Structures are given as structure tokens and as C-alpha cells.
Automatic annotation (TrEMBL), chain A:
This is Sarcosine oxidase subunit gamma. Gene3D superfamilies: Heterotetrameric sarcosine oxidase, Probable tRNA modification gtpase trme, domain 1. It comes from the Bacteria. It holds the Pfam family SoxG.
Automatic annotation (TrEMBL), chain B:
InterPro entries: SoxD, SoxD_sf. The lineage of its organism: Bacteria, Pseudomonadati, Pseudomonadota, Alphaproteobacteria, Rhodobacterales. It comes from Rhodobacter calidifons. This is Sarcosine oxidase subunit delta. It holds the Pfam family SoxD.
């Protein structure tokens, strides 16, 4: 097996908030709706319950997020993706679903600090005053799709790997010292 | 700026998070229809000043198509609803009539 490498090799920036590219992170896109074994399959992989609309259930280094009425994002350690896919296939055998390893298709960033929200406020058409803890918000960061949620005194941002350096540029620029809101 | 609430995920999405899908509730005229009907289905679109029904896609969010009733003159939004209907639901019609008593549903 070749060594997994994250999109920007863990690039970081210290402005009025800390920007870190993290990963590689295991991610599975699970598309399914209204299946009776769905909560069991998710529980087996992430140890969390099935999230309600626009929520993310986090448990340690695992999480399950609600992406759309028929799509969930499962987050887990990178090395366990293969085993997790097998667990899902077993739990949902015979039921209409799709589970795909998207770990290498994504880039993940952490934005940390007291003013982490200000970095994102400048980039996303999202009202952060109304964003609740435990809410997963899919939107755009400047010109590209991104999903964010609050976690441990900061935000986690997920975007496509192909635009990782663009997003790093955005976050770096937005976090320049002196540009606080 | 237009803000539409996505009926699938409940996000109050701003216009740039959405993609326009133009007129809603088109009736398809396919094989067996007259050339005039097909031409109208293909090309003729309503362009009202006032109440209009449109398709929108929550592109940067859940990715679902939904329908919206809004006023093209004032940008007032009467409501949004899921796309699995062939005509505007009664509650949307009621909301429009509350604001535009002279308007007549087709």
C-alpha cells in the first residue's frame, strides 16, 4: 500500500486564527433513505446515531453528518475505511444504498481560535449568528462548494481535494492579521 | 437579493447558493403531439410581471431541485415547495392570494 498523503501535506497558517490542513481523514459517502437498518449501519461504523436534518453527530474521531435527505457523510480514521465499507455492505445487504470511499477526493481544514468564525464569515453566504453547535452547513466558500461545522472551539471545513490550494489561499487571505471584522 | 428556503434541508439559501431552473410546472408534449404544441413546450416560456412559479436547484447545499412561487416585480417570495408535484399546492396558492387578491391561478 502506498502512503496516504493529504492534499497540501498538512499546510498551516497563523493569522488572527489558525488554519491547518488536516488529514488524511477517512470519509464515506452513504446514500440511502428510509432503510430500516440504516441507523444500525451508521452506528456500526461511527458509533453515533443517525443525524437529524442538517446535524452532525460527533463521537471522538468519528462522525456522521446529514448532507441531504438521502445522503450522509461518515468520518472515521483513514485506515478503517475498507473495513467500514464491508460493515455497511453487510448491514444493508439487500437494501437499496450506495456507499463509496471518498477519503482521497476531499480536503479537510481546521480553523481555530476565538475569531475563527470571522475567517469564514468573509467567505461564505452563511449567517453565522444562526449557525447552531452540531449543525452541518453545506454552502460555498467564495467560488467552491464547502461544508462546515463547529467542533472543539473552531470550525472544520471540508471541500474537494482539487480545490484544496484555492481554499487554503482563501482562508490564509481571510485570516490576515489586521483584517479582523 | 433573493433568499429562498430550501424545502428539503430548511436552509435559507441566498441566490448565489442556488441555480435557476426557470419556469416550473411545464407540461411535456412529446411524441404524438402537434408541431405547434411541441414548439410551445420547447420554446414558449411565460414572462409575467407578477406571480411566477420557478424551479431552483440548491446547488451548493443538498443538491435537490425545488419549486418557488415569487413575484417577478417586487422579488417577494410567497413560498417554496418540493418538486414532486405537477401544480402549486393549495397552501402556496392561499399565500399568494393573501398577498395578491386579484391574482388568478391557472
Amino acid at each position: 500500500m502506498s502512503e496516504p498523503v493529504s492534499a497540501l501535506n498538512g499546510a498551516s497558517f497563523q493569522g488572527f486564527a489558525t488554519i491547518r490542513e488536516i488529514g488524511p481523514l477517512g470519509m464515506i459517502t452513504l446514500r440511502a433513505k428510509g432503510l430500516k437498518s440504516l441507523d444500525k449501519a451508521v452506528k456500526a461504523v461511527t458509533g453515533t446515531k443517525l443525524p437529524a436534518q442538517r446535524r452532525i453527530e460527533i463521537k471522538g474521531d468519528r462522525a456522521c453528518g446529514w448532507m441531504s435527505p438521502d445522503e450522509y457523510l461518515l468520518i472515521l480514521p483513514y485506515a478503517e475505511v475498507g473495513a467500514a465499507l464491508a460493515k455497511i455492505a453487510k448491514a444493508l445487504a439487500g437494501e437499496h444504498h450506495l456507499a463509496v470511499d471518498v477519503s482521497d477526493a476531499r480536503a479537510v481544514f481546521r480553523i481555530e481560535g476565538d475569531r475563527a468564525d470571522q475567517v469564514l464569515r468573509k467567505l461564505m453566504p452563511v449567517d453565522f449568528d444562526w449557525l447552531e453547535p452540531g449543525e452541518l452547513r453545506r454552502s460555498r466558500a467564495a467560488q467552491v462548494a464547502a461544508a462546515i461545522w463547529q467542533q472543539d472551539q473552531g470550525f472544520t471545513l471540508v471541500c474537494f481535494r482539487s480545490v484544496a490550494s484555492y481554499v487554503m489561499g482563501l482562508l490564509t487571505h481571510s485570516a490576515q492579521p489586521g483584517s479582523e471584522l | 437579493m433573493l433568499i429562498l428556503e430550501c424545502p428539503y434541508c430548511g436552509v435559507k439559501a441566498e441566490e448565489t447558493e442556488l441555480s435557476p431552473g426557470y419556469e416550473a410546472h411545464l407540461k411535456r408534449f412529446g411524441p404524438g403531439s402537434s408541431p405547434e404544441e411541441f414548439e410551445a413546450y420547447m420554446f414558449a416560456r411565460k414572462n409575467p410581471k407578477g406571480v411566477h412559479f420557478e424551479r431552483w436547484r440548491h446547488t451548493y447545499g443538498c443538491g435537490k431541485w425545488f419549486l418557488a412561487a415569487r413575484c417577478t416585480a417586487t422579488l417577494e417570495v410567497f413560498g417554496t415547495y418540493p418538486a414532486q408535484v405537477s401544480e402549486p399546492p393549495a397552501d402556496i396558492i392561499a399565500k399568494i392570494l393573501a398577498r395578491r387578491p386579484d391574482w388568478k391561478p391557472e
